[in-house]
Design brief:
It contains no helices and eight strands. 0% of the residues lie in helices and 43% in strands. The protein is elongated, with a radius of gyration of 14 Å. By secondary structure, the protein is mainly β. It has strands at residues 3-9, 12-18, 42-46, 49-53, 56-57, 60-61, 65-69, 74-78.
C-alpha cells in the first residue's frame, strides 16, 4: 500500500508519496493537470479522492467541482455547486 499526502499551497496541489515498502523514492512524476484553471479553491480529501471545489477563474467565481481519483489517476467533473463559491473552508 502506498503512503501519500496531498498539500495545497500557493494555488498548487502537490502529492507527496513514497513507495509501497515505506522507502522514499526521491522521484517526482507529473500527473494529468486539473481540467480547469482556478485559484482560491477549497480542497477536500475523502476516501482517497480529492475534491477541488469552487474557486475563482478569469470569468469570476466558479461553481465547478473537479474530482481526482488517486486509484485511477483520472480527473472528472461532478455536478456543479448550487451557487459559485470561493475562499471557503
Amino acid at each position: 500500500m502506498f503512503n501519500y499526502k496531498f498539500i495545497l499551497a500557493f494555488s498548487f496541489l502537490f502529492l507527496l508519496a513514497n513507495s509501497a515498502n515505506g522507502q522514499l523514492t526521491g522521484q517526482w512524476k507529473e500527473m494529468s493537470p486539473m481540467p480547469s484553471k482556478r485559484t482560491e479553491v477549497s480542497v477536500a480529501l475523502l476516501n482517497n479522492i480529492i475534491y477541488v471545489i469552487g474557486g475563482f477563474t478569469k470569468n469570476g467565481v466558479a461553481d465547478q467541482v473537479d474530482v481526482w481519483n488517486s486509484e485511477t489517476k483520472i480527473w472528472s467533473h461532478i455536478p456543479p455547486l448550487p451557487r459559485p463559491l470561493h475562499h471557503t473552508t
